[in-house]
Amino acid sequence: MKAGLLATRDLARHYRRGPQTVRALDGVSLELGRGEFLAVLGASGSGKSTLLNLLAGLDTPSAGEIYLDGRRLDGLSRRELAAYRAERVGMIFQSFNLLPQYTALENVALALLFGGSAARERRAAAGAMLERLGLGDRLDHRPADLSGGEQQRVAVARALVKRPEILFADEPTGNLDRDNSEQLGRLLGELAAAGQALVLVTHDRALAERWAQRILRLDYGRVAETWRPAPAGAA
Fold first, then answer.
1. Parts of the chain with a pLDDT under 50
2. Please, what are the domains in the chain?
């Protein structure tokens, strides 16, 4: 286990649905090390996205605790949670959520808009990140002119350009074909190897076992099992 960065203790999220209480998450304890690639598996309704939303500060728990560097996250104000998401978290979604009227460069630069940097600096950082992800010749292309795999890499660049401490990915290969899914998995594995802490929520067990360093499977809101697969990228 690498040095601890993020941890939960007996984390729960319950919802009221008419007279019933839905236990979307029910007592989950986990730890994420610095530079660790953790994959969260489970069927639809198992609590995967609920867990990710709580870790990313997009939702608040019904019970339990969330810690970042030993500091409680679940007690932060809305403003403090917004700052946490803006400054320390990167998000990748299944739907790429790119703005169609903007170029790849502009979409990535938008992630830095509230950081106080000058427009020239934002564009330079966005261009460098897109170059790093192999999109240096696509800077001026709009989403409609990019392939699905290229759009996803723009979305990854947008998440990474802030240099987040933790990268959360919610079913990022859901709209990709097998080749592009493999390319994205390899990229995520390379990011973790370079020191990026990463939590991947996915239905794709093969992808998780090929690239993640540790896997957690949820079932009905609880941790059913955890294991370490073969080294990332192994055949």
1. 1, 233, 235
2. 4-227 (3.40.50.300)
